[in-house]
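Hi all, long-time lurker, first post. I run a small reading group and we've been trying to get comfortable going from sequence to structure in the token notation. Rather than ask abstract questions, I figured I'd post a concrete chain and ask someone more experienced to write out its structure so we can walk through it together at our next meeting. Sequence below, copied exactly:
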Amino acid sequence: MIKADEVKAIALSFKGTGEKPHFNRTVFTVKNKIFATLSYEDKTLNLMFTPQLQLIYCSPGSDVIFPVSNKWGEKGATTINLDKASKKLVSAALKEAYKLRGKK
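-- Answer (accepted) --
Happy to help. Here is the structure in token form:
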């Protein structure tokens, strides 16, 4: 289990990360591109992965980390259930999403 405030601290520790509200979530950006969204209410973190990276992180049937259940999920968007995730998993996944969006 990891708290939303801990997730926020990790995301903001990356160089050049911005934060702003986005609907009912908090968005984290790098180079004006969203790399993650955080919901305090749902206790979930959505990451902007590629489909290939999503396959590496998501085990079939997992209730900890899994594809977003819509078209975004087919493009790589991935959800982490913060009530079930370890700090190590969240840190690693956030770093990967940050690196992907921070390229270029």
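A couple of things your group might point at:
The chain has four helices and six strands.
The helical segments are 4-12, 51-57, 71-74, 87-102.
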